[in-house]
Design brief:
With 153 residues, the protein is mainly α. The protein has one domain (29-151). It contains 7 helices and 4 strands. The strands form 2 sheets. Strands 1-2 form a two-stranded antiparallel ribbon. The protein has a two-stranded antiparallel ribbon with strand order 3-4. α2 packs across α3 (75-90). The longest helix has 23 residues, at 40-62.
Length: 153
Amino acid sequence: MVNRDELGSWLEGPPTSSDQDWPGQRLGRPESGRGAVASIGRRLLALIIDWALCLLISYALLGYHNGQSGLTGFEPLLVFFVENLLLVGTLGTTMGHRIMGLRVTRLDGTMSNPLFIAARSLLLCLVIPAAVWDGDQRGLHDRLAGTIITRTR
């Protein structure tokens, strides 16, 4: 009979491979510093910064007109999609990523194909793929796009 200890718990976080001591080790990434896999905390702060900027941009472009709100709720998400598509596709980083010292690259360290960045951005907007990650702390959207978020400092 299988017991709870053998199954683990969702509270323990994502599974890690027993052949690596830190996220990204099997991908050839350093444990810390430049080029290391970005921590969940840094990514979350970058996401909060990006989302706040998207809210401000959508409000500035489609804000109140004649006392009525022009926002339906999806405008910030559309701005978020466009931000990721344009900035990650050209610079490899969003504003939040830049502030937090992060960069999105392919596994070999080069810039990704714009088509893959578009797919990654769309999956990121769906939220669930971004919330499912592996032992290397890569979200499903990054795995499908062949990208990884690393530290720049």
